[in-house]
Design brief:
- Helices cover 43% and strands 5% of the residues.
- By secondary structure, the protein is mostly helical.
- It has a domain at 2-42.
- α1 links the parallel β1 (9-10) and β2 (31-32).
- The protein starts with 8 loop residues before the first strand and ends in an 11-residue tail after the last helix.
């Protein structure tokens, strides 16, 4: 209902589920930024992979799921490392 009562719905926080943006757009609600932009902006892993695929120079990175993955990355690329959550 809210989406139909305004011209555009916008989000300024990466904690918004992209699926919500997709659902609003599917219902015809104008959302800015749109879902595709949100995938890149809200998820560091998606953003980094996309930039790397396009040939942009970026630091070495790896998506890991546990501390062992961080240790392995550090062993391969050197210490210190920066570990960040992909989202949030």
């Amino acid at each position: 209902e809210f989406g139909r009562s305004v011209d555009v719905v916008t989000f300024d926080h990466e904690g918004v589920p992209v699926e919500l943006v997709e659902a609003l757009q599917a219902q015809g609600v104008a959302v800015a930024p749109g879902a595709v932009a949100c995938w890149f902006a809200f998820d560091k892993a998606v953003s980094r992979r996309s930039l790397a695929d396009l040939g942009f120079p970026i630091p070495a990175f790896e998506v890991v799921s546990d501390a062992a993955g961080i240790v392995q990355f550090g062993a391969e690329h050197g210490w210190p490392v920066v570990a960040k959550a992909a989202r949030g």
